[in-house]
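Bench log, entry 3. Co-assembly request; chain sequences pasted below exactly as received.
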Amino acid sequence: MTRKTRRLWIVIACLACVGSAAALTLRAFSSNIVFFMAPSQVKASPPSPDRPIRLGGMVMAGSLHRINENGTPVNAFQVTDGQAAVEVHYTGILPDLFREGQSVVALGTVQKNGGFTASEVLAKHDETYMPKEVADELKRTGKWDPRFGKAPDASSWDTMTAKKAGG
Amino acid sequence: MFGPEQGHFALALACVLALVQFAVPLWGASRRDARLVGLAPYLAVSQLIALGYSFLCLVMCAVSDDFSVQNVAANSAVSKPLLYKITGVWGNHEGSVLLWTLILAACGGAVSLFGRNLPDILRGRVLAILGGVSAGFQMFCLLTSDPFERVFPAPMDGQGMNPLLQDPGLAFHPPILYTGYVGFAVPFAFAVAALIEGRVDAAWGRWVRPWAVAAWCFLTCGIALGSWWSYYVLGWGGYWFWDPVENASLIPWLTGTALVHSAIVVEKREGLKIWTVLLAIATFSFSLSGTFLVRSGILNSVHAFANDPARGVFILALLAIVIGGSLALFAWRAPSLTSTGLFSPISREGSLVLNNILLCSICAVVVTGTMYPPFMQLLAGRTISVGKPFFDAATIPLTLPLLLAMGVGTALPWKRAQLARTFSHLYAAAGIAAIGVVLCFWRLSGIMPIACGALAIWVIAASASDVLRRIGIGHTSPRGVWERMKNLPRSSWGAALAHIGAGITVLGLCGMSQAQHAIVEIHIGETRSLGGDDWTLLDVHDYIGPNYKAMQADLAIRHNGKLVTILHPEKRDFTTQSQTTTEVAIHTNFITDLYGVIGDRHGTGKDTTYVLRLHRNPLAPWMWLGGLVMAIGGAFSLSDRRMRIGAPKRAAARNMARA
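Structure output for the full assembly:
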């Protein structure tokens, strides 16, 4: 075995592995990338029901209620970005940090009726922090300008004052 | 004596010592001045002492509740248990940077102590590189994230620690993980020193490998511990989230595993030199960027820059110098390194090359999946995320050939192998693997779990049969077997153990892919069945803990009417931090984990219902057990006398004296 043939073998092996890695990555990307959308974007252009997305926004105060579907508890709540609200259904235990009037990110699909079925709900934040996507969306819609201090309290939002004021 | 000012001074002193440790030996080595080079170990040890003192000061501040120190005030409280006061020191940014540099200094100290048989010039250069990296991060600590900063007026009590983090598993997770990350600084320093010298030989491979193996063991343990913590504390029923912080530890583990293997080829056959040097540089670079870019959240959120621009710019500059500098040096000097060992594609070397290519391909996939979303965010402004489906689809197909090769690799001889002869050794293992295929078809569903499970059994069987063949089971007398067992190098035992550990982990992962769970809302006394077990909610009661209120359930599990266990999952409400935590209850018999979580209470009186999440996780403990076996395998091969630096030299000297 000469140096040249050995090098050829190694190059072939490298190309095969890196090539298949690239092919696998591209294939996985094309079917598994999850886009982030705000409720108003979902309302404006609903994605197809087989395409999972991440929906982010504030949990509308007073909107959380439970439906019992054949013994499995389903949590239903509205998620809003201050312009539109989407009804979210989630089967499972809501995370410890889940609160009405606070930000949330839900992973799931948009149904034909415009509702959202979540397979995962994330509230990985403390009282003072909100997910970056939600913060960006707030800024984009002009609800919050970081130059003027902290993000507004959720209760000050127009669509969310309904029950919060009453306690 | 152990005040914050003393600690601050000691940190500054250590930084100056590290700078001297960087400059003097390098200068001395270029002038071939033995006295200057010989200073390096003394400087390294004194830097370690100064830094150790500084760290001790910070620990003392935390233990004595000195809330005039900003860092302690922000992260500790009087009521915190002593253990968490100590471990809380590295639970925040400033303290963890200090711990990071302390471990780096300890690596320098270890090289000075255990590296007495190294050539002086090489040791001097290695210590100089370690000193340079150390100085950079100590400066980062001093200038942008000072752990000893005072606050005025001092608060009466600290703000306390996140109750989620008050857990023994998490308390020791960071030091172990950091030792893994930082340990790869030593192979990195060896690589850079070899590039400066322009020479890589078998001896270099022999010196580098123990350091790489040691770091790899710690990193393996650290990753397993982190995953275990997320399993039993977070209570979401999973074990790996594929989130950037976790990937940041997996990426250097993959390249580090490749490094541990390619260094064998350098040591035994003087091949793959340039590649090994590059891997050493890459592994440490990934460790660095992992800890500082991903963990600090700079990549996750561009806004981290806005919060503290100085920190971000400093760390980026530091990374650019260390990584860019070493890669530039590599580009300049690597062509002068030439490999001598020739081998055919079917040989031990060939299988190690394949292992390296596959591990690096997997690493490339993980890097792409981790980096693509933040870059898309930066460049296109579109927020996307990739998760478990992506990583599963992209990495598992690449793992299959890796597992297949793992079984064959250790049975192949060096240089050139005859496939037929090699396979004649593997008949038994192939037979067991065939039974494994049947077993997997019976117990598992899905193509990938079945393939992975069967290959994992193949890896375990082939590794075990390789060791059994070498110690002569079946064709030597028991006495001969004992003799051979004693003479078989410990590194062979270690390699077999590590491969078996990897097989066990993969089996655990396959088992977990079959996990079942149910979310139920039931009254007290009601029963639900899951995977053949009946779960009955016996009772729920409230009690008051030291600093929380808790709701505890009694959950009985019966299998065919026979009581298996009673689980007590809890939900705790920490009133001072207004935070709730979930205490998972797990019953394990090492084959199946029964995992119960209690959620909310609804309704009142007779109509009260409780939401419960029930999980049945087959083979879950095997995932971490396999990690432990892998690390033990690594430690075993570290104890091989051939791995100990200079051991052959000492043995030769002894033989000379005897003659």
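The two ends of chain A are 82 Å apart (CA to CA). Chain A touches chain B at residues 1-3, 6, 9-10, 13-14, 17-18, 20-21, 24-25, 27-29, 31-36, 54, 66, 68, 71-73, 91-94, 96-97, 107, 126-127, 132-133, 135-136, 146 (CB under 8 Å).
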